[in-house]
Amino acid sequence: MLPVYKKEMRTYFTQMPGYIFLAFFLLLIGIFFTLVNVRGADGNFQHVLSNVIIFFFILMPVLTMRIFSEEARQKTDQLLFTSPLSITGIVLGKFFAALTLFLIGVAVTAVMPFLLRNYGELPVNQIVGTYIGFCLFGMACIAIGVFISVLTENQIIAAVGTMAAIFIMFLIDAIAASMPTTTIASFVFVIFVIFAVTSVFYNSTRKISAAVIVGVIAVVIAGGLYFFNNLIFDGIIVRTLLWFSIYSRFSSFTRGILRVSDIAYYISFAALFIYFTVNVIEKRRWR
């Protein structure tokens, strides 16, 4: 992992993408800092971070679009994937390099709250909590970008795909509100999810018998639960969609509330997309 990490960090600071990201990121922070805090004589710096986070669907593609797509375009990915390094180590090295660059930008902004002390007592708990949530949110978005980058060798497609995926994450709450909540619709949704998970299991293992057995057992269990107590299926579509709402969990951080469940969610979310990335590369490597 470490050699890949060092290579990626060197690339960020010897080529333009790293500087473009930092410049755009700090420009956005500076604009909101001036408008919200300085001109408004407001010491609540967490409002700046809350506003900037909405622009992650533009920022993160700049940071992640080249991570794997550029390797594929230059055909250097084959050399990388046939090296002694593990696929997981390669993915983690690239992921942590992108995360480090993001955190460098965040660290530069840490001086700004101290400039607001003349506007009254700072809400330290809220500012610190928002910073933590801001970093975790960014980590989740970077994991999405890394996954989409591995799907294509075109940087533009990777950027647009990442932009669309993160934008949809912002709309999840509205999408969930329009979904049916009836038990029969929920049961059909569960069956669909079972088939989807079974397909992923088969693609990962190439063992059709094991995949069929797992799928049949899951369908039987779901059918039994529906027959004996179908109320547990009420609203399951909405609950499932809301699990992917990475923005809704950010609000508790802005209030200075650090919930273990929210922190674990962001870490798990990032880990899930890293796993997806490793899985895609493993399949491509042995194809």
Main sheet record: none
**How many domains?**
2
| N-to-C series of helices and strands | HHHHHHHHHHHHHH
The total of beta strands comes to 0
Please report which band the strand proportion falls in: under 5%, 5-15%, 15-25%, 25-35%, 35-45% or over 45%.
under 5%
- Helix share bin: over 70%
Radius of gyration: 22 Å
Q: What class do helices, strands and sheet pairing give?
A: mainly alpha
Helical run tally = 14
The rough form would be described as flat
Cα separation of the termini: 23 Å
Round the mean pLDDT to the nearest integer and report it.
Answer: 83
Unreliable stretches (pLDDT < 50, length at least 5) are none
Would you write up a description of this structure?
- By secondary structure, this protein is mainly alpha-helical.
- Helix content is 76%, strand content 0%.
- α4 crosses α8 (124-149) and α7 crosses α14.
- The two termini are 23 Å apart.
- The relative contact order is 0.13.
- The mean pLDDT is 83.
Attribute tags:
mainly alpha; flat; single chain; 2 domains; about 290 residues
Set down the secondary structure blueprint.
Layout: H1 2-14, H2 16-38, H3 46-52, H4 56-64, H5 69-73, H6 77-81, H7 87-109, H8 124-149, H9 155-177, H10 183-205, H11 208-228, H12 236-243, H13 250-254, H14 260-285
Provide a short characterization of the protein structure.
This protein is mostly helical. The chain has helices spanning 2-14, 16-38, 46-52, 56-64, 69-73, 77-81, 87-109, 124-149, 155-177, 183-205, 208-228, 236-243, 250-254, 260-285.
